[in-house]
Amino acid sequence: MSMWWSLRLRREAASVPLARRLLVGAMETAGVDPDVAFDLALALTEACANAVEHGGTAAGEDYRVTAYFDGDRCHIEVIDSGPGFAAPTPPPETPATRPTVPPPTDTGAEGGRGLFLIAELSDHVDIRDRPGSGAVVSFDKILKWREDAPLQAA
Questions:
Q1: Partners of 120 in the beta sheet?
Q2: DSSP code for 83
Q3: Average pLDDT over residues 116-144
Q4: Edge-to-edge strand order for the sheet containing 62-70?
Q5: Do the beta carbons of residue 72 and residue 134 sit within 8 Å?
Q6: Do 74 and 40 contact (CB within 8 A), yes or no?
Q7: How many Å apart are CA 11 and CA 78, to the nearest integer?
Q8: CA-wise closest residue to 101 among 113, 110, 84, 109
C-alpha cells in the first residue's frame, strides 16, 4: 500500500491543525495503530508550528507539508522559506546529514522542544537547510497496524 499527499499552507496558526487532521484521517482510514498515529501527528504538529513561527519573514508566506505511506513506513517532510538553521558543527562521529537534536535546557521555557520531540517520536529524522533559503525537517516512522486495518501492507 502506498499513499501520498502534499499541502501548500499559509504560515498561520490555523494551518497546523488542518495538516494534523489530514494526517490523522489518512492514518485512521488506512488502519494505522492509534499509538503510532498519535506520535506522527504530534511530530507533524511540532514541525508545522516551527514552520509557522520561524519559516519566513513576510506575513502570509507558504510552507509545504508532504506525507507518504509506503509499505510499513510513513515519511513526512515540512519545508519552509525562513532563514534555516544555525546548526552547530556535529561531532566527527555524527554524520552531517543526521544532526543530533539536544534536549531542551530551559525547562521553564514556553518553546524550544519541537525538534527534540520530533526526534524522540520518530525512527529517523533529518534536519537541514534548504538550498537557497529555508529549512527542511523530515522524519520517518515504521508503521504498526490495527488488526482490522483495511490497507495494511502485505
A1: none
A2: -
A3: 93
A4: 2-10, 62-70, 73-79, 135-142, 124-129
A5: no
A6: yes
A7: 12
A8: 113
Can you name the residues that pair with 87 across neighbouring β-strands? none
Cα 37 to Cα 145: distance, rounded to the nearest angstrom: 10
Q: Using one digit for the tens of pLDDT, what is the confidence trace for 27-64? A: 999 999 999 999 999 999 999 999 999 887 766 689 99
Per-residue pLDDT tens for 7-16?
Answer: 999 999 999 9
Q: For residues 66 and 95, give the distance between their C-alpha atoms in angstroms, rounded to a whole number.
A: 24
Cα gap 116→105, rounded to integer Å: 11
Alpha carbon distance 27, 107 (integer Å) = 32
> Is the CB of residue 77 less than 8 Å from the CB of residue 136?
yes
Of 23, 20, 2, 19, which is closest to residue 10 (Cα–Cα)? 19
How many residues are listed for the chain in this entry?
154
What pLDDT sits at residue 1?
A: 72
Query: Whole-model pTM?
Result: 0.81
With H, G, I as helix, E, B as strand and everything else as coil, classify residue 12.
Answer: coil
